[in-house]
């Protein structure tokens, strides 16, 4: 039996037949006749020196050799297809597909993307909002903005601005609750989206950092950060606002942060793309634009007393 690989067309025919367990359906997928597909598989079996299928009356089934070959053939073609698509996409500098969480998309990207589109009319920007970890090759993603600690093996990973949490509310509510002590009687909103972090970054931690022995137990809870912020914008209460998600509302005075004490997080938003692709023109332009937008509101962090959440004494 020769060691060299058999023809790719024969392996392709086997892969399709093994997946469908039908020569007719496999032939339909490959747009060839059943006779042509059967010939390819027979040539593969001759190359191997043993059968890959048992031909039954109205069906086929894999032999022991076929069961060994099938998963490797399927994985090989999947890998080859992904590599081919990724290679073809290297020629496409017009379409930029970005994935980010729903909150970051709603509160950071969506309100700003018009400026990027106006500055780069030659780039078609596409957003895919979701928390599912996406595969850059399989899902044809160019850039991901993700929140967490990493690590991000095999990827170009660039942390964005330091993330902090501080109480934010409408200017009207700030007049009613001018000091941290007043928060004990304020309607508090709970953002549960950070519960996955090992270091607690909740209301109880913020009050301890402020030197207050107060543990809130009542308030409306939200699983999505942007929903909690929307409730605060509506005047429903006070929320621990995350920098990236409230900075635009703070800059435009829809929300205020009157107490100046903020908890910093180890976790950060990160700009991610496959290693080596960060210099592609459309990815480089998007990355540069993100940093320019961050710089526009950098003044919001000035004057804050930053306390690392991990350094807050436990309860």
Automatic annotation (TrEMBL):
Keyword Transcription regulation set for record: yes
UniProtKB keywords: DNA-binding, Transcription, Transcription regulation
InterPro entries: LysR-type_TF_proteobact-type (IPR058163), LysR_HTH_N (IPR000847), LysR_subst-bd (IPR005119), WH-like_DNA-bd_sf (IPR036388), WH_DNA-bd_sf (IPR036390)
The organism's place on the tree of life at top rank: Bacteria
Keyword Protein biosynthesis: no
Limits of the HTH lysR-type domain: 6-63
CDD domains, per database record: PBP2_GcdR_TrpI_HvrB_AmpR_like
UniProt-listed NCBIfam families: PRK11139.1 (NF008352)
Family label: Belongs to the LysR transcriptional regulatory family.
Name of the protein this chain belongs to: Transcriptional regulator GcvA
Naturally occurring in which organism (per UniProt): Sedimentitalea todarodis
């Amino acid at each position: 039996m020769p060691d060299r690989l058999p023809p790719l067309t024969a392996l392709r025919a086997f892969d399709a037949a093994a997946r469908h367990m039908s020569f007719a359906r496999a032939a339909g997928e490959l747009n060839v006749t059943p006779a042509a597909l059967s010939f390819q598989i027979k040539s593969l079996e001759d190359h191997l020196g043993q059968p890959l299928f048992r031909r039954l009356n109205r069906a086929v089934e894999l032999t022991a050799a076929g069961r060994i070959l099938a998963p490797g053939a399927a994985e090989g073609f999947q890998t080859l297809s992904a590599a081919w698509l990724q290679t073809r996409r290297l020629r496409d500098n017009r379409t930029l597909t970005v994935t980010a969480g729903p909150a970051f998309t709603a509160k950071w990207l969506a309100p700003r993307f018009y400026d990027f589109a106006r500055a780069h009319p030659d780039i078609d920007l596409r957003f895919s909002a979701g928390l599912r970890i996406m595969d850059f090759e399989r899902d044809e993603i160019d850039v991901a903005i993700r929140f967490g600690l990493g690590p991000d093996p095999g990827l170009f990973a660039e942390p964005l601005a330091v993330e902090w949490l501080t109480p934010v509310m409408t200017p009207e509510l700030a007049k009613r609750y001018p000091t941290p002590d007043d928060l004990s009687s304020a309607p508090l909103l709970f953002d549960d989206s950070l519960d996955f972090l090992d270091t607690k970054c909740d209301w109880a931690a913020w009050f301890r950092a402020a030197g207050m022995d107060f543990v809130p137990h009542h308030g409306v809870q939200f699983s999505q950060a942007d929903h909690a912020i929307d409730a605060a914008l509506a005047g429903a209460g006070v929320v621990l606002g995350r920098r990236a998600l409230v900075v635009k509302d703070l800059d435009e005075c829809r929300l205020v942060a009157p107490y100046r004490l903020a908890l910093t997080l180890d976790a950060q938003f990160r700009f991610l793309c496959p290693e080596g692709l960060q210099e592609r023109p459309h990815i480089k332009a998007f990355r540069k634009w993100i940093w320019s937008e961050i710089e526009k509101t950098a003044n919001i962090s000035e004057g804050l007393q930053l306390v690392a959440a991990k350094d807050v004494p436990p309860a």
